Fold:
Amino acid sequence: MKKKIGDQNVLYPTPVTVVAALVNGKVNFINVAHVGIVNAQAPHLISLGMNKAHHTNIGIRENGTFSVNVFSIDKMAEVDYVGLVSGSKTDKSAVFETFFGELKTAPIIRDCPLSMECRLHDTYETKTHDLFIGEITATYADESVLTGGKVDLAKVRPLLFDMSSRKYWSLGTPVGDCWGAGKNLIK
Amino acid sequence: MKKKIGDQNVLYPTPVTVVAALVNGKVNFINVAHVGIVNAQAPHLISLGMNKAHHTNIGIRENGTFSVNVFSIDKMAEVDYVGLVSGSKTDKSAVFETFFGELKTAPIIRDCPLSMECRLHDTYETKTHDLFIGEITATYADESVLTGGKVDLAKVRPLLFDMSSRKYWSLGTPVGDCWGAGKNLIK
Structure:
């Protein structure tokens, strides 16, 4: 039996990312799990729903570039930490080592499985949040998470977020083929 | 060592949803895993990145309402099936039983753990995709997935999507506290 439970968002789990940007010339990090996928072909667009109060938003607007970094469960403490303190008061620039890619102003985290370097494509604004829509210009993968040149989520062991339990979760195992598991139902 | 792997989107896994809408008066379903979360407070906004070629888009535009239904791994075949055939050619209205809520025109799936009834808030268009931004007006949960009145992902056992492997994945276990796991790093 289904019951109404208000108007809560139950679209979880989502991957926990660390967004990196230069704010007034200094590298800053924040964790963001309110992410989204806009389309399914190049140029690939992804979205970040970020409260306007965040310090990182200033840098994304300023430079029009940022990176979105996917983390493994091993780094849960560091990933959680960059969401606990604001870059407006605390220097978080040394939490992760970074390098710069072709966009020049988007710091990219070195020690994480996957990073997407993004150019700010557009900002969709709500009263409280900036929905930053980024175009992925380059993707970087640690060789240790590739199998036959492809990203292997079993090796990435991504950190996932759930608002209801306020817990981080791990990923389970593959359970079937997309565009395949339902083939037998075609009449 | 990190290497460039093109410009691919690696923001996975994402929850697999079945989006339900009335198209020309008939219930239609499609699976959508290119979802997103826009903000973190009411009115709760979520996004669906849907190729403009899909039949369901017509109904979402027509009625300005739809539902987003979260499925457990048990129903993988049915969920996959509604993404394999188009409602323009195949009547999928009997795949899931539905009911209508307060919006009157958004069919809501009865036999799934979680459903969000949505009013179309806005449509952000790209050349190939409609990013439908929905305002959640009501959320429905099967009592079997609640623990102490809260959604329990361990009971939901959500079906997750990964583009790289083209596999559906299961969820693992909780690994730590959000806004907690990094507290020891605060100086």
User: Anything to note?
Assistant: The CA atoms of residues 175 and 181 of chain A lie 9 Å apart. The mean pLDDT of chain A is 97.
